[in-house]
Structures are given as structure tokens and as C-alpha cells.
Amino acid sequence: MTKTVNHVTKSILNVGEMASGAKLTVPVYRFAGQSDAPSVYIQANMHGAEVQGNAVIYQLLEQLRNLHILGDITLVPYANPVGCNHKNGEYTLGRFDPITGVNWNRMYHHNPDLVVPFVQDNVDASEQEIKAKFKQVLLDDIDQQLDHNMYGLTTGQRIAYQLQKMAHQADLVLDLHTGPISSKHLYCPEYARASASYFNIEHTLLIPNEFDGALDEATFCPWWSLAQAYAAKGRPLVLNKESFTVELGSQEQIDLDVALDDANSVLTYLSYKGVIKGVSKGANNGANKGEENTSEQFVPAQITRYACYLKDYKAFYSPMGGMVDYLAEFGVPLPAGEPLARILRMDNYGDGDALHYISLDKEVIPILHFASASVNQGTELYKVFTEFFTL
Ligand SMILES: [Zn+2]
């Protein structure tokens, strides 16, 4: 069923069935672009507890109603209906499929064998033809998995592949996540680093052309490999295909005011890419209302943007069990030797050391930490940028 509200189209996508026969559904909102500008796919909440992206999509929908939209935009909140509803007591789980244990964001499809034969068959095709034909190859490959795979798919693959099918239709893909307790950060393919400066996000991870199951990789790796294959034949291509995982802060939290900032950050990037123009159509809003949304609001914030390569993004595992007082502030370089955290061990009080300070022997930027104060030895306590630099 499809109904139109202004120029937003809403549809419901069936992504699976529960044991009772109840349908697993995902709402899909679409704006039709007015030109052949790049198209966009944005989804949120693939991990159950990472809910802030839904609020960002709400704020995007509210704002996009009053903007000139040049490229098609598809927005999908609650992208994973199983993860979204996976509660235990007062907490939301939903990072791993409870049946297989696999991370929900490691189930997307990648077929590295598509590139070589494609390039052989399309050596002399125009750039436009290459983009259209290779997109169709990716879509056909997903359809093959979804509809003509006699051994079937897992619940998670069926959800992921249907989302990926929508993502493959787009030129620009944003997968909205959060950390556990976290600062905002962006996963950005190395070739697209210029784009990171258009998001109002202070920390960027530059990631290589390696597929590890996530949506951003599943959508940019094929195009990166394609560009490299043509480049090897002496033919540089400008494909303008980009995908990002946007980490919006901490899990289990919705903040609609922060979401408005996050939506503006996304719109700044989309404005840079020519997907939107910042001037309102103002058709139903009175004569001058449209002038409120001038393009100036989509100027990137003047902030220091730190980056590091994925290989230098380090997890720090707790050297001991205990109760953690997380000390290091997010996003600020922490000098070597300064405490990251202190661990309380009340079992040692009186006849041992009740407090243990933890520090590193090099400067880092703390990005996120574990969500609970009680940890086992070996729990991933912090993730930090090392060898960082400014963009
Ligand atoms: Zn996530």
C-alpha cells in the first residue's frame, strides 16, 4: 500500500516472517528527485539499541518537505524489525541475531567475481553506460540470492539483502548507527575522505577496500574494485559512489534536538553532493516562508576533524575484572600516561589495591567505551584513535 503525503511516499516492505506467521515489516519513505542528481539511501537502527538514527530520519523527513530535492532519496527507519524489538529486561539487545549469534551488520552480500568479467565485456563503454550496467549487475546478483537460491537464506540475510537491494539503487548510502557510550564518528572509505569534511562529525575512520559484511562496504567495495580495474587498463573513472556508516553517539538514547543537528550534518553533505538545494519551495507555506531555508544553513561547521586509518583504530581490553570508572573524555587527545579509567576492586580493600589506574604509553583519542561499569578481564573497555591526524 502506498500513500503520498506532500511529496513523501510511504510504503511497507516485507522482509520476513515470524513463526506465528506475523510479517516482519520495514517502513520505507521516498522523495522523488527533480533531476538526475545523485540518489540517496539512508537507513537506521540495524542494531536494535542504536535508535538515534530513527530520530535523525524523522528530522530529515521534516526538513526535506521544504527543500528542493534534486536526487531521489529513500529513508528507512527501523531497518531491522527483529533487532529493534529484541529486549531483555529494561535493555535493548539486537546487536547479534539471537539464533545464529551473527552480528546483524555482517550479513550483507558481496560477490568479488563480478568485476573482472564486467570490465572485459565493457572495456569501451561510456562512463554512463558503465554506471547503469554495473548497477544492474549488482541488483541481479542480489535478486539471484533472494529469489533463486534453492538452499535459502538466514533470517538476517533475508533482511539485509532486501535493504541492500534498495541501497544498490542509490549513489550515496548512509547507514546510521551509534556506539555503546560514544562520541560521534564516521566510517569513510579512503577514496572519499574529501567528503568527510562536509559532515559535522569530529572523528573520521578511513577504511580500506575490504569487505567484512557491513552495508557500507557491501555498497562501496564493488564500485571501488570496478574503478581500480578500469584504472589498471589506463582508464580512470569518476563514479561518484559513496557509502558511510555514521555513528551518532550512544545507544539506547533518543535526543530530538541533537537529531536535528545530525540531520543538518547529513543535509550539508547532501547539499555538497548536489542532491538538495537549500532554498525552500515554500509552495504551501506563504510567500516569504521559503526564504527561511537558505543554502547558508548547509555550510559545514568549523570544527577540528580528526581522522585515523582503520588499522590504527585500537580496542583496549580490560587487563582485569572489576568495576570501571571511565575517566578519559571522548574526542580530546589524551596524553601518554594520563589515566583512561580506574578499576575498583572492593575484594582487595584493606589487604590489597582497591584501585587500579589504567593508562597507555602513547597519545590517543578515546572514541567510545563499554556500556556497563562491571567488566570481566578481557572486556573491550575503550576504542581509541592512534596515529591520528587532522583532515
Ligand atoms: Zn551499529
TrEMBL record:
Domain spans labelled Succinylglutamate desuccinylase/Aspartoacylase catalytic: 37-271
Pfam family, one: AstE_AspA_cat
Record-linked InterPro entries: AstE_AspA_cat, N-alpha-Ac-DABA_deacetylase
GO molecular-function terms, A-Z: hydrolase activity, acting on ester bonds; metal ion binding
Top-level lineage group: Bacteria
Keyword line: Hydrolase, Metal-binding, Zinc
Necessary cofactors: Zn(2+)
Cited Gene3D superfamilies: 2.40.50.100, Zn peptidases
PANTHER family: BLL3975 PROTEIN
Protein name per its UniProtKB record: Succinylglutamate desuccinylase
Native species: Thalassotalea euphylliae
Source taxonomy: Bacteria, Pseudomonadati, Pseudomonadota, Gammaproteobacteria, Alteromonadales
